[in-house]
Write a structure and sequence with these properties.
This protein has about 425 residues and is α+β, with helices and mostly antiparallel strands. Helices cover about 35% and strands about 35% of the residues. A hairpin with a 5-residue loop joins strand 17 and strand 18. Helix 2 packs antiparallel against helix 3. The longest helix is centred in the first third of the chain and has 61 residues.
Length: about 425
């Protein structure tokens, strides 16, 4: 009887297959272990900073730098150019409205004023002479008219008598007709003379009005020239402190050039510079605050300057109630500009962890403090002190807030005292 003998190579094949299966199982186990997030790292507990999550009042704000300025500043410009004859006050002096500051001279203005004044006097004399001539002409015409009326009256009576005589054949028809023609001619002349008197009167009225209007225009021009001369005395427009007065006696001041500035120091405002990133979140009436002499003062935006220069824009903020005593123009202060109203929220202190995680996850300490486990979170608004936690954390959770730069992407930190 034949015996079947197994080939040896089948034993080796089974061994190789078993090793492959064992290797595959080991690889699957390793991959499962790695994907299970069990990577750990030992960390020196003394080198981390932690914060306990709590619910408190949160307000979004940004710190901005402001400069104290007068509530109002007025530029003093030379309305008329001229030579400085006298400097009546010094730079930095406190002045009242109308206080003389400089006395200028301008020979052209003075000559122009004298010429206009002479022309005005000549015009007034001309008007008076014209009025006298018109009055004389009117009287002459009136006298002529009265004389013609007298002659007409006499001729009328004469014509009446001659008519009776002609009807009684006492005079010839030719004599009567001559007298009648003379009477009718005189009537026409009187009517023409009357119309001439009326037109002359109307013409005189028109000429007088024209001359009066011309005289009024010259008076107004003279008044303007007089004011121009008065502008050679430069005066303070408001009450305040004079600054920037750097002119000297004998110096020529061009027309329209800036001479000085007056600052109203009865109140102050804060000129604040803000990064252009926040331009869409800044509006009039928005409030802020700053601390001066250990006391907080409230401010409100009154004006926004839309020009963006060197990555920022400016706003003016006025004090809501009182102005700090002792504050001075030019001082620099740090203003907390409010971007939102106060409301309750879960808060976590700002720290280096944000630079590593982008606020997407943090390490949370276990109850016994022996380890810290990675957890995903979601952060909302922020201010210079806190982040607002929207999701992922609960009150009393203890979070590592220091930098995660040396932790890599470990899922668990083993905290040890070293």
């Amino acid at each position: 009887m034949d015996v079947i003998i197994e080939k040896k190579n089948k034993i080796w094949q089974k061994a190789i297959i078993g090793l492959l299966i064992l290797g595959f199982i080991s690889w699957i186990s390793f991959s499962f272990y790695k994907s299970s997030g069990a990577s750990k790292l030992n960390v020196n507990q003394s080198r981390i900073l932690v914060d306990t999550i709590n619910k408190d009042v949160f307000q979004e704000f940004i710190p901005v730098t402001g400069n104290v300025q007068p509530i109002k500043s007025v530029i003093i410009a030379a309305v008329e150019g001229g030579r400085v004859e006298e400097k009546l006050v010094e730079d930095g002096a406190a002045v009242s409205a109308g206080t003389p500051i400089l006395r200028l001279s301008n020979s052209d203005l003075q000559m122009s004023y004298l010429n206009q004044e002479g022309t005005l006097i000549a015009q007034m004399n001309q008007i008076r002479n014209m009025n006298l001539l018109q009055e004389q002409q009117r009287l002459n015409l009136q006298e002529t008219y009265l004389d013609a009326e007298f002659r007409l009256d006499i001729l009328k009576r004469r014509l009446g008598r001659e008519k009776e005589l002609y009807e009684g054949s006492a005079i010839s028809k030719v004599q009567y007709e001559d007298t009648e023609s003379e009477y009718k001619s005189l009537v026409r002349r009187n009517a023409l003379l009357k119309r001439s008197i009326e037109k002359d009167s109307l013409s005189g009225i028109i000429q007088t009005e024209q001359m009066e209007n011309s005289l009024d225009l010259m008076k107004r021009n003279l008044e303007i020239s007089k004011k121009n001369l008065e502008n050679l005395i430069v005066k303070a427009p408001i009450k305040g402190q004079l600054s920037g007065l750097n002119v000297e006696v004998g110096e020529l001041i061009p027309e329209g050039s800036q001479i000085a500035q007056i600052d109203d120091l009865s109140n102050f405002k804060i000129r604040v510079r803000i990064d252009e990133f926040y331009i869409s979140r800044v509006f009039p009436e928005q409030e802020g605050s700053f601390t001066f002499a250990n006391q907080d003062y409230q401010l409100r935006i009154t004006k926004i300057y839309p020009q963006v220069v060197n990555g920022g824009f400016e706003v003016d903020m006025k004090f809501i109630s009182k102005v700090p005593e002792g504050i001075r123009r030019g001082q620099t202060v740090t203003v907390k500009l409010q971007l939102s109203a106060e409301q309750e929220a879960l808060l976590i202190k700002r720290g280096g962890f944000y630079q590593s995680t982008g606020g997407n996850w943090v390490y949370i300490l276990s109850q016994d403090g022996s380890k810290a486990i990675k957890r995903e979170i979601r952060i909302g608004r922020q201010n210079p002190n806190y982040y607002e936690v929207v999701d992922g954390l609960q009150p009393n959770d203890v979070v590592i807030t220091s930098s995660y730069e040396n932790f890599g992407d470990k899922d668990e930190l083993i905290l040890k005292d070293q």
